[in-house]
């Protein structure tokens, strides 16, 4: 009986695939262009050149920030991660909880202040002001190859604080690090 049920399930999946053009059928990402308040959404995407403001929003998946897009999250709860590759501004403020990591690369400005991040906080190759303050980071905080002012202060970090190849080197103080303070961040 079990093999017959498996075959039936496979047949239904194949027919569904053919019916819907060979693509898997999943709920689409929520597109944010404007403001979202106290609502619950799955995965969220901020399209290129758009602005998304989350206030008290619950995201049960992850957030993807596209090229030149702006994201502001205040008192938001994100179960997954925030991933930005080329976003213009990433601003995550007090009262926001991120169940995964925050990764901001190839962008212009990242301001993460007062967030609770379960995994890592990574800023890499950002070209404008980076400010990472008053955060609780469950993994590592990493700043790599940023080319503008980078301020790292008053964070509580369970992993390492690692800074390499930033020009100018990061400034900051008052970070409590369970792991090691490495390279350019050795005195922060």
Explain what you see:
The protein is mainly β and 188 residues long. It has one domain. The chain is 10% helix and 43% strand. The chain is built from 1 helix and 25 strands. It has a 9-stranded parallel beta sheet with strand order 1-4-7-10-13-16-19-22-25, with no helix packed on it. It has an 8-stranded parallel beta sheet with strand order 2-5-8-11-14-17-20-23, with no helix packed on it. Strands 3-6-9-12-15-18-21-24 form an 8-stranded parallel beta sheet, with no helix packed on it. The longest helix has 18 residues.
Can you give me a brief rundown of this structure?
The chain has one helix at 2-19; strands at 30-31, 34-36, 40-41, 44-46, 51-55, 58-59, 63-65, 70-74, 77-78, 82-85, 89-92, 97-98, 102-105, 109-113, 116-117, 121-124, 130-133, 136-137, 141-144, 150-153, 156-157, 161-164, 171-173, 176-177, 181-183. It is mainly beta.
Strand and helix layout:
Layout lengths: L1 H18 L10 E2 L2 E3 L3 E2 L2 E3 L4 E5 L2 E2 L3 E3 L4 E5 L2 E2 L3 E4 L3 E4 L4 E2 L3 E4 L3 E5 L2 E2 L3 E4 L5 E4 L2 E2 L3 E4 L5 E4 L2 E2 L3 E4 L6 E3 L2 E2 L3 E3 L5
Parallel strand pairs: 1-4, 2-5, 3-6, 4-7, 5-8, 6-9, 7-10, 8-11, 9-12, 10-13, 11-14, 12-15, 13-16, 14-17, 15-18, 16-19, 17-20, 18-21, 19-22, 20-23, 21-24, 22-25
Helix percentage: under 10%
Q: What does the average pLDDT come to?
A: 89
Give me the side-by-side strand order of the main sheet: 1-4-7-10-13-16-19-22-25
Structural class: mainly beta
Biggest sheet, in brief?
9 strands, parallel
The termini sit apart by 64 Å
Q: Estimate the strand proportion.
A: 35-45%
How many structural domains?
1
